[in-house]
Amino acid sequence: MDVAHLADGGAPLLGEPPPIELGNATYAVRGRAKDGLRSVEHLAAWLRDLRPRLEVTLTDDDLRGITENDLRHARELRDTIRALADASTQGCDPDPDAVATLNRHASRSPRWRELRTTPEPHTTVCATGRPVEAALAALAEEAVELFAGPLRQELRACHGPGCVLYFVRDSPRREWCSPGCGNRARAARHYAKVRHSTRD
Description:
By secondary structure, the protein is of the alpha+beta class. Helices cover about 50% and strands about 15% of the residues. The protein is built from 7 helices and 6 strands; from the N terminus they run αββααααββαββα. The strands form 3 sheets. Strands 1-2 form a two-stranded antiparallel sheet. A hairpin with an 8-residue loop joins strand 5 (about 155) and strand 6. Helix 4 packs across helix 5 (about 95-105), helix 4 packs parallel to helix 6 and helix 5 crosses helix 6. The longest helix is centred in the middle third of the chain and has 23 residues, at about 70-90. It is globular and about 70 Å long. The chain starts with 17 loop residues before the first helix and ends with a helix.
């Protein structure tokens, strides 16, 4: 597998916190649900594209070594994040099974920080086990922090026509996951208003 030339998995990356990016690997095109993690190659492409924002360093060899089991874990984690995001945005209590699944993923691969002194002092994340497993576990741990912390209050479901994505509201005026969804929502409102006025 040539990591540099992998086709995109199709899942949009919108600059959201990495766990929300993973949750958004289920998305919609023209109102039809799509799976951005359909194959091992799609997961490899998604992790490659998110690599600069991951806590655990993944090499090209790590991405080439992704297995069907990694894909199964990534999909389960994605679906769990979506369930927790849905509960949060609806103002409901989270499903205890989803919480247990998230915690299980977070504990899958122990990680710790170590001090490195060259070229200058910095920390690096070390992990036991395979790096892809550790990266998915770190994403789960970030999701734990997101759903337990203040960002949970800013988590929103996009109300753009046909959109199924989540986003963290970074300004009081933000209503959609992307400018494209905002434009579609405004166009739909305008069309509905014009249609209503022509009926009168």
